[in-house]
Amino acid sequence: MTHELQTPVLSVRGLTTVFERHRERSVAVDDVSFDVPAGSSVGIIGESGCGKSTTVRSVLGLLDQNGRTVAGSARFQGTDLLKLRPRQYREIRGRRIGFVSQNPFGALNPVLRIEKQFHNVISAHRKTTKKASYERAVELLEAVGLSDPERVARGYAHQLSGGMAQRVVIAIALCLDPDLVVADEPTTALDATVQVQILDLLAKVVTGAGRSLLIVTHDLGVVAQYCASVVVMHHGRVVETGPVDRVLVTPDSPHAANLLAAVKSTALQVEGSALGGEGREPEGGGE
Ligand SMILES: Nc1ncnc2c1ncn2[C@@H]1O[C@H](COP(=O)(O)OP(=O)(O)OP(=O)(O)O)[C@@H](O)[C@H]1O
User: Fold this and answer.
1) Helix runs in 81-191, H state only
2) What are the residue boundaries of the ABC transporter domain, all occurrences included (predicted)?
3) What pTM does this model have?
4) Is 64 in the pocket of ligand 1 (CB under 6 A)?
């Protein structure tokens, strides 16, 4: 499959974001451009502090008050997200773009039942009833591999393990059937074995279901296994983009080559695990 022939679901051009603190200004994201093709998965990779999270937070309108995007565009299905007012942003985020963050317990409200959190997200975007939201919650909690979805729906976040909580966050991100899911280091806070299950799940319910996935990671193994193409960042800039099976075999940039050299010792199996155009078809996973 040739990515260039597909219309991107997200097209970022010249994105430039600065942080200003105590009158000091630093450029965190500098002239960043990349595409997320429809139905495909793209990884953003680079060392800590290179601007990965700031890139996706800029695109999603989730910067804190110190951050400001000063140039560029982020066209999502034809709409430049960077030109939206906050209310219009909220319309698209949640409904057409799902977001999965690093820390599931930070994303879930500790004092609301899980079913109520589904209801709040769904009712913010469309007419629904508590019963319909509950049924949607149970359906999705089952789809993300939770074995007792009714009990989870009626419970609270503190009753969940980290992996279960991230499954709930993924289910909530999917509840309005978005076309794009953005995941920012979605497994950093989880145990190693649960990390694989969550990544397999994301690949299955996002790219496996025809949606697009943009995933931020510092782990080249994640890119090799779950992404079709990769954006390599260094000091706020994109230093290389391309299909995973090309970048991981013959990187053009010294930064991509360095990342590759660092994981060579872990016997990265590029062949057979790097995705083609559509993404790897993963196994489902229980907890
Ligand atoms: N809220 C903020 N206020 C000020 N500076 C920030 C803020 N968030 C990020 N930065 C700065 O922007 C730069 C990019 O940070 P960012 O978190 O995007 O990097 P990252 O590649 O996602 O790193 P990591 O992998 O460690 O999460 C860094 O220099 C960081 O210190």
Assistant:
1) 86-92, 104-107, 114-125, 130-143, 149-154, 162-174
2) 10-260
3) 0.88
4) yes
Residue 61: its pLDDT value, please? 92
The count of C-alpha atoms lying within 13 angstroms of the C-alpha of 199, restricted to the half-sphere facing its C-beta, is 27
Beta bridge partners of 19: 26, 67
Maximum CA extent, the chain: 55
Atom 24 of ligand 1, nearest CA residue: 48
Closest protein CA for atom 5 of ligand 1: 19
Integer angstrom CA distances of residue 114 from 53, 202, 203: 27, 20, 23
* Residues 214-258 pLDDT 10s: 999 988 889 999 999 999 999 999 999 999 999 999 999 998 888
- Cα(53) to centroid(ligand 1), Å: 7
Q: Would you say how long the chain is, in residues?
A: 287
